[in-house]
Amino acid sequence: MKYKFADNRNYQDLSSGRVLYNLPGTTAFPVRLASEIYQRCAALLLAGGTDPPYSLYDPCCGGAYLLTCIGFLHGREISRIYASDIDENLVSLAERNLSLLTREGLKKRMEQIEAMYAQYGKESHLEALQSALRLKDMLDRMDGDIDIRCFTADITKARDLAGFVNHVNLVITDLPYGNIVSWSGEVDEKQAVRRLLENILPVLLPCSLVSVVSNKRMKVTYQGYRRIELFTVGKRQITILQPVF
Ligand SMILES: C[S@@+](CC[C@H](N)C(=O)[O-])C[C@H]1O[C@@H](n2cnc3c(N)ncnc32)[C@H](O)[C@@H]1O
Fold first, then answer.
1. For the chain, how many structural domains are there in total?
2. Binding site membership of 60 for ligand 1 (Cβ less than 6 Å)
3. What is the pLDDT of residues 50-85, one digit of tens each?
4. Ligand 1 pocket residue status of 174, Cβ below 6 Å
5. Which of 2, 6, 150, 183 is the Cys-Cys partner for 35 at CB 3.0 to 4.6 Å?
């Protein structure tokens, strides 16, 4: 796949565990690819007549590494982020990561890193502080804070999603696949993907887009959607769908 939008630059300010929080066993995501997916979708939304700001939802958000990176890189175009996961510990990590997209949350994180630097004097803490300052510059270029809503939900069963989520322009989600993370609540992964697509449908708008990152074996398809794009990067497959109302 040839990158159309995202530069091949150094994204180390967004490295997991540097300023962004992580937990043992949580997954990260290639930042350039996250940006490319967002920008491809944003270009399609714009071409379809939907202007920013956009509301973004990840129903398998984990620690919201993917969403937080997109928030820092493209937050000027994003008004609201919804994040949900079946695992409440990960939702709490997601809340902490997404709080970094607010001035108050980032200030708190900088104070933590400063305290660690004062106590241990490690070079890595100083580098993290420098990254945090650059992330603060990115926040300062945004008009206001993004409205952030996190909740726990099994997306294979979440039939009352409209009570939590509304008017989503863009879903970007990295499915459980591979050795580190697997589906919970639904053992058949094809069925899990169908349930996810079925359950998010009521909260989408006619021009919304759904971008699903999966392994290459997975056919990401369901009645009520048409496929707009399909591309692969390394072991990952990205399918962009649009609801058909
Ligand atoms: C590949 S990880 C996502 C990582 C995330 N994109 C990030 O940036 O941190 C897949 C996530 O799907 C979640 N998951 C598994 N089964 C689920 C279900 N039935 N409903 C919602 N989330 C589920 C896992 O808990 C895991 O956090």
1. 1
2. yes
3. 999 999 999 999 999 999 999 999 999 999 999 999
4. yes
5. 6
